[in-house]
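User: Just a sanity check before I run the rest of the batch. Below are the structure tokens for the first item. I only need the designed sequence back.
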């Protein structure tokens, strides 16, 4: 896909319905190779990626869904503050309600909301799942490094006509991922990510989360 850098960034969104069409190992390799140009403090390159496809993808999806349905949740780390404040609380609620609306789910339909959440553990139908890890001994700077690496993955994927969905939901059942993929406890699971071709007919993919204007989050210092 012939996208400019700005087009690839501005058009990126979290896709939640994918086609089953296969993605070649070569394409994933090229995406990860390009993403590895992300900066990192003193070039430590703290990221480690686990790619699941084929039967491995199906196996971990089945195990994860079973654990989630049974309520066997164990957080890998705290992603959100214990008490969300404004303006972040309103933003979070707004995107949640908008997501349910695209799926025809009423706000008080909790079984349907749970079923929607569980789709995370099938990678929303994507044929490729990525898991991003780093050694637990790293400090806060490595989180920044890994975030830039993940952003590169998502933008580079669009060059090949692919879309993505970063999935912190996998970190709610971290032990399942560690066990199924043989990831040692010395590594922290940072995020999962679905990768594949977008199902453009799926209503849920019409959702594009809003962004605040530059004027809201920017302060200029001239003197």
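Assistant: Here's the designed sequence for the first item:
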């Amino acid at each position: 896909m012939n996208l400019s850098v700005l087009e690839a960034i501005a058009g990126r969104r979290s896709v939640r319905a994918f086609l089953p069409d296969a993605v070649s190992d070569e394409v994933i390799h090229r995406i990860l190779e390009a993403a590895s140009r992300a900066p990192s403090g003193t070039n430590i390159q703290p990221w480690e990626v686990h790619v699941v496809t084929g039967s491995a993808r199906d196996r971990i999806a089945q195990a994860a869904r079973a654990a989630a349905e049974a309520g066997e949740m164990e957080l890998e780390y705290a992603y959100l503050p214990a008490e969300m404040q404004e303006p972040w609380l309103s933003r979070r609620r707004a995107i949640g309600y908008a997501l349910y609306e695209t799926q025809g789910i009423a706000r008080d339909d909790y079984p349907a909301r749970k079923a929607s959440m569980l789709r995370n553990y099938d990678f929303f139908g994507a044929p490729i799942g990525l898991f991003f890890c780093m050694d637990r001994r790293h400090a806060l700077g490595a989180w920044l490094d890994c975030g830039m690496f993940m952003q590169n993955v998502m933008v580079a994927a669009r060059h090949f006509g692919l879309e993505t969905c970063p999935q912190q939901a996998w970190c709610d059942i971290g032990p399942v991922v560690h066990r199924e993929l043989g990831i040692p406890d010395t590594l922290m699971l940072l995020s999962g990510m679905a990768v594949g071709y977008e199902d453009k007919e799926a209503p849920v993919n019409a959702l594009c989360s809003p962004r605040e204007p530059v004027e809201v989050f920017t302060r200029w210092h001239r003197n």
